[in-house]
Write a structure and sequence with these properties.
Layout lengths: L5 E9 L6 E7 L19 H9 L8 E2 L22 E2 L10 H14 L17 E2 L9 E4 L3 E4 L26 H4 E3 L6 E4 L3 E2 L1 H5 L2 H5 L11 H7 L5 E4 H20 L12 E4 L2 E3 L2 E4 L5 E3 L5 E6 L2 E7 L7 E2 L3 E2 L10 H8 L1 H10 L7 E2 L6 H24 L13 H22 L6 H15 L5 H18 L4 H10 L21 E8 L2 E9 L4 H10 L1 H4 L5 E8 L3 E7 L2
Parallel strand pairs: 11-12, 13-20, 21-24
Antiparallel strand pairs: 1-2, 3-4, 5-10, 6-7, 6-9, 8-9, 13-19, 14-15, 14-18, 16-17, 21-22, 23-24
Helix pairs in contact: 8-9, 9-10, 10-12, 10-13, 11-12, 11-13, 12-13, 13-14
Length: 574
């Protein structure tokens, strides 16, 4: 944003495509990291170049225009036409009429043909400081020699092993105070030398653990190629948003080095990435006279309420006001973290798991709320009560045979089975295809409601409910394993060997259909009909409905049947 300053060198350079003379200026705003040597300015379509050219009265030729709007280009007023990248070239000789992408490709082609350059990928990975002044990392296999400088350890002496008889005392890196580790000889000249006491950042090891995991017992090489080709890339990688920025960048870098060295064959280490959102919570603080800030835990705060709205907050210790800050990422420095143990003691681990997975999609932020834990907790209690009622029904009906006889199922039992297998199908898609961790919980809550409202009247009904409950508990065990597996065992099912529920597509078929009946566009009745009933029969049955027939006085102009949904009559004069 600094003022643009430039010096005209008096030199010119030949434009590589048009051959025209281009003046060479030295300027103070060209980014050091952007290419090297001379950089071609585009004063009409780069904001900084535009400002510079106007200051020094340099030509500003328009070279991009749009077909869908008249040109009103001004050399006095900046317009961002370049970033759109949907325009076409003008005033550009051989490039005229080409789109942005076609023009880029054409320039690359011309420059390559003339032997003036070639396309290349510019990587933005900066120099990476991999060393840390601490004990608990992998030793860096280098030796510092007074005569030879920094020398790598001979391959025959690898690996350099971290000593284990160390008791850190908080006074820096203890390796510096261990002569038996520190003192060595130079691999190059044989003179006394010192080992490098910095250790690798743990990013170094974690950047290629996925590759090593496929051949953990091979002590002859980094990676066994056959195993790597079989297992890599990793199907699904899960990591936090901040984690993704650094670790995954380095992991890709390591993998591509290994690929270039022939250790692996695939181009990428991971096929899919799920970047988890962060957990947010409220902050409470006071600003101190010295400019510092003191943050307080939520349990140290009393809230001043106005109905259901928080109007203010005071510190319990002194009763004086504190500032209610922003909703921010949970961190130790802001004292807005939640101790899981306290929540677990109050609600149980299953409630905490359900809440964190259900409240927000995994890739979005979660705003923590203690009061919102009651919903998942009540759901778990409802599951518990429902299973208890089912166990009592089995005992009372002496239902040892829980086989479902599909041909004799009641209408309500068929509906329950349909809901059960619709839930299985939904969760198959949510988890298997979209890795949506939150939506299955909603489906399980709906299924639990259906089960709770179902009232069995015979053994076949109980068998249908048993199937629904087993499916519910098996799927719930993914989220609430303590309750889910405990209740499965109460049903005499071994949770360790229980298979994922299998979809029965036949249960999704509806034997009967509820059809709406309209007269002149207004709903006058509904009727249950067998699936596949022909249209003539549907019209006859609709006319028999009392609430419909009284409006069919007059000439029926039209009889319309929308399959599985609607029967509509158009009556003249009605």
């Amino acid at each position: 944003k600094a003022e643009k300053v430039g010096i005209n060198t008096g030199l010119t350079a030949k434009h590589p495509i048009t051959g025209t003379d281009v003046p060479v200026w030295v300027a103070n705003y060209v980014l050091m990291s952007y290419g090297s040597g001379a950089v071609m300015a585009v004063p009409a379509h780069d904001e900084r170049d535009f400002e510079f050219a106007n200051k020094y009265n340099l030509p500003i030729p328009q070279v991009i225009d749009f077909k869908d709007k008249p040109s009103n280009y001004s050399t006095n007023q900046w317009q961002d036409w370049y970033s759109d990248k949907t325009g076409f070239c003008i005033n550009s000789g051989i490039l005229d009429g080409l789109s942005y992408h076609d023009a880029v490709a054409k320039v690359n082609e011309i420059i390559t043909e003339k032997g003036l350059g070639q396309t290349t990928t510019q990587y933005r990975l900066r120099d990476w400081g991999v060393s840390r002044q601490r004990y608990w990392g992998c030793p860096i296999p280098m030796v510092n020699c007074e005569y030879c400088g920094t020398v790598p350890v001979d391959e025959a002496d690898l690996p350099v092993v971290l000593p284990t008889d160390v008791i850190p005392d908080g006074r820096g890196n203890p390796l510096k105070n261990m002569p038996e580790f520190l003192q060595t000889t130079c691999p190059k000249c044989g003179q006394p030398a010192e080992r490098e006491t910095d250790t690798f950042d743990t990013f170094v090891e974690s950047s290629w653990y996925a590759q090593r995991f496929v051949s953990p017992h091979d002590d002859s090489q980094m990676i066994e190629r056959t195993a790597a080709d079989k297992w890599l890339p990793v199907d699904q990688y899960v990591g936090g948003v901040e984690h993704a920025v650094l670790h995954l960048l380095y992991a890709r870098f390591f993998h591509k080095v290994m690929r270039d060295e022939g250790l692996v064959s695939k181009d990428e280490p991971f096929a899919n990435l799920l970047a988890q959102g962060m957990v947010l919570a409220g902050t409470y603080y006071r600003s101190n006279s010295d400019g510092s800030t003191t943050y307080y835990f939520p349990h140290e705060i009393d809230f001043v309420m106005n109905g259901t709205e928080i109007e203010g907050a005071t510190l319990k210790a002194d009763g004086k006001p504190v500032i209610i800050g922003k909703i921010e990422k949970m961190s130790k420095s802001k004292n807005n973290g939640v101790d899981p143990q306290e929540i677990i003691e109050q609600y149980g681990a299953d409630t905490v798991r359900l809440y964190t997975l259900f409240t927000a999609p995994a890739d979005q932020t979660l705003e923590w709320s203690d009061s919102a834990l009651k919903g998942p907790h009540n759901f778990i209690k409802k599951v518990w009560r429902t299973v208890g009622e089912h166990l009592s029904a089995i005992k009372n009906h002496q239902s040892n045979d829980l086989t479902i006889h599909k041909d004799t199922l009641s209408k309500d039992a068929k509906n329950l089975r349909r809901k059960t297998h619709e839930t299985i199908a939904k969760i198959d898609v949510s988890l298997g295809e979209h890795l949506a961790l939150n939506t299955p919980v909603s489906s399980l809550m709906e299924l639990c409601n259906e089960i709770a409202s179902f009232k069995p009247t015979d053994n076949n009904d109980i068998a249908a409910r048993h199937e629904a409950i087993v499916a519910l508990l098996t799927l719930l065990s993914l989220y609430a394993p303590h309750v889910g597996e405990y209740l499965l065992e109460a049903l005499k099912i071994d949770a360790r060997t229980q298979a994922f529920p299998v979809l029965d597509k036949s249960a999704l078929i509806n034997d009967t259909i509820t059809m709406v009946v309209q007269v002149n566009g207004k709903v006058r009745g509904k009727m249950e009909v067998a699936a596949g009933t022909d249209q003539a029969e549907l019209i006859r049955e609709a006319k028999k409905i009392e609430s419909v027939s009284k409006y069919l006085i007059g000439d029926i102009k039209k009889e319309i049947v929308v399959p599985n949904k609607l029967i509509s009559f158009v009556v003249a004069g009605a």
